[in-house]
Every structure is written in C-alpha cells, then in structure tokens.
Amino acid sequence: MIPAILPTYNRAPLSFERGEGSWLWTDDGTRYLDMGAGIAVNALGHAHPALVEALTTQAQALWHVSNLYDIPAQQKLAQMLVDHTFADTAFFTNSGTESCELAIKMARKHWAEKGEPRTTILAFEGAFHGRSSAAIAAAGSEKMTKGFGPLLPGFQQLRWGDHDALTAALTEDVAAVILEPIQGEGGIRPVPDHCLRGLRELCDKTGTLLILDEVQCGMGRTGRLFAHEWAGITPDIMMVAKGIGGGFPLGAVLATEDAAACMTAGTHGSTYGGNPLACAVGAKVIELMTADGFLDRVGQAAGRLRQGLEGLVANHPRIFEEVRGTGLLLGLKCRVPNTDLVAQNYAQHMLTVPAADNVVRLLPPLTITDDEIAAALDRLDKAATALEQAV
Ligand SMILES: *Cc1c(COP(=O)(O)O)cnc(C)c1O
C-alpha cells in the first residue's frame, strides 16, 4: 500500500523536535551536530533569536494579502537586495525551482520582445536547478528526466569543463547560459574564477544572457554574499533561494534592468511569492549577513574547517580522496560509498548530506563556532576510523 506521504524520498530514520544554532535534538533528547543545515537552508542556524523575533512580530500583524496590494516588507527586502547586489530588480518566489522557472521565462521573453528568435539555453551536465519540467529539462540527466517526457525543448547540456564545446555552442543564437558557480547536488564542483570570467566575456560577445543559479552557493555560503563576486563578474539574471529565508520558504530572481525589462504587468506572478512573513524573515537574514564582520567570520570558519578536512583526508587515505569547494560549501570526495560515511556520521550524531560523484557535503550554519568545527572534525575522524575497521 502506498504510504500516506508520497514515497519520493529516501529518509533516514531520524526525527527532530527542536533546534538551536548548529544543533538538533531528537524526541528522545539526543543531540546531533547539524553539518547539513537543511541542505544549506538554515544559514543562520536553528531558532536564531532575531529571525524568530522577525517572524513572530510579523505573524502577529499580518500573514498574507497577495500581490494585488503593496507589501512593505517585500519592498524593503527588494531594496536591500538591489543595494547589495548587481541587480536592479527582484521578483520573489517560494523556492529555487520557482526561481528557475522565472529565470528561464525571463531569458526567453527578453529575446522575444527584441524580435530575435533566440530560445536555446545552454546548461551543464551534473547541474541541478530544481524539479519542475523546465528545471529537469535544463539539467537533462536521465535520473531526473526519465519518464517525464516530452521534455521542455530548447536546452542543450555541455560537458563539465569542456571549454571547446562551450565556445562552439555559445553562438549568437543562444538565449542564455545557466549554471551554478559551484555545483551543489552535482558533487561540490566549483567553476574556476577564470572560467566564469571567460564565460562572461563569451556571453558579452554574443549578447547571450548569463543566468547564475546561486540557490545553494549564494547567501554568504562562500564568504561573500554571492559566489560570483569572487570572480569579479556579474550575471544578468540570478536565482536565489535556500539560505535567503533561513528556513522559511523564500526565493528570488534578481536581474538587471536590461534583462528584466520584458517582464511587464501580467507576464508572471505568484500567490505566495514575497508574502509578508517570508519577506520579514528574508530582510532580517540580509541585515545580519551584511552586518560588519559577518562574512569575514564565515571566511575564517571556512578556513579552519577546510584545514581540518585536509588533515582528515591525509590521515584516512583509504576513506577519502579529496576536499572540494569553497567557504562553508565543502565536499569530501570518498573512496568508500558516500552513503556509508553519511550513515557513520549519523552514528556519531552528526548530520551530513550526500551529493553526486560520491561526495559527502558539509554545509553547516554560517554561524558555526570554532568549538563546533572541532567537534565536527572529531566526529568525522571517528566515523572514518569506524569505516576503516569495517573494511
Ligand atoms: C536546491 C536547489 C534548487 C531547487 O530549489 P528548491 O527550493 O528545492 O526548489 C535549485 N538550484 C540549486 C543549485 C539548488 O541547490
């Protein structure tokens, strides 16, 4: 008999009752160190007092009015995003998938409005942009698309790291290129800064729109507000979600005026997108992340964690191959099945997240302390030792 919940997830037999900072408690009182942060969502940890305050204050005043009316909290959040990024304008969604939908629609409409027949969107193998029909067509993998055809046409996937294929494909007929500056689900695979700069140049030469998917790597995770800032480039359109709501469902599409000018009244919408509850939390998240010293501290924590992980890999060569990623978006490429390590981490009362390419992701709250980093490294060391004894 099919379970009451559609069985699309492989769930660990764990259930949590309460969270605080980097820690979660099960109903029997066992404490787990959360190095997954709800897949890069709880960027400020669990139950951050300022976020709880922002949400409950808004909840007592007003939950929802719809986008038929002005929403001051939405206006405030949009202005903050415009002030702190490349963007001239923002549209609010409830998830990364919805941000992907709008990014793709905007890119195509941009060319339709110009009267140029550009519809092709280039994407990359190993990408993850969400689970809608458009997002799976963009990613193109058999795992995500099998049985869901006919797929939305107009996407072409390029091999990861194949510069020649990219240069050949990126012609003046291409509407947009979509990519994650650091592939998350794909196994923590960063695009080197010089490649991002080269891609920006190619897009400029051909007029192609550059869509960056910063749903996982954005919102402070790399030590800058957005990952592309390290390369010194800006996109035309950017997808945001996950960390921006700190655990409350919120996403956004940020864009330049040129890319977004096609999106006039009636061309897109969302009932919940940008609702007062989500925007009150989002504005507090941005305020805290852009406060003096916050992102520097992320960088320091990241350096400490990475250094510890390099040592771990050196000490357990039969278990680990390498450390990948930047900031607090790190991956351990494993020599044993990654799911074995995730299970051993559970046994050590620590949550980590598997990714493709046999990688285990470490994406803790950005507020993780030095002591918690030490505890994570200690638990990983114990998990690796247990795995060595098992083989
Ligand atoms: C999680 C994720 C998405 C999809 O976001 P949802 O909120 O699950 O719809 C899209 N792109 C990237 C890079 C992601 O990590």
From TrEMBL:
GO terms for cellular component: cytoplasm. It comes from Palleronia abyssalis. SUPFAM superfamilies: PLP-dependent transferases (SSF53383). The gene is argD. GO terms for molecular function: identical protein binding; N2-acetyl-L-ornithine:2-oxoglutarate 5-aminotransferase activity; pyridoxal phosphate binding. Its main location: cytoplasm. Pfam families: Aminotran_3 (PF00202). Pathway: Amino-acid biosynthesis; L-arginine biosynthesis; N(2)-acetyl-L-ornithine from L-glutamate: step 4/4. Gene3D superfamilies: Aspartate Aminotransferase, domain 1, Type I PLP-dependent aspartate aminotransferase-like (Major domain). The keyword Transcription does not apply. GO terms for biological process: L-arginine biosynthetic process. This is Acetylornithine aminotransferase. The modification N6-(pyridoxal phosphate)lysine is found at residue 242. Its cofactor is pyridoxal 5'-phosphate. It is found in: Cytoplasm. Belongs to the class-III pyridoxal-phosphate-dependent aminotransferase family. ArgD subfamily. Binds 1 pyridoxal phosphate per subunit.
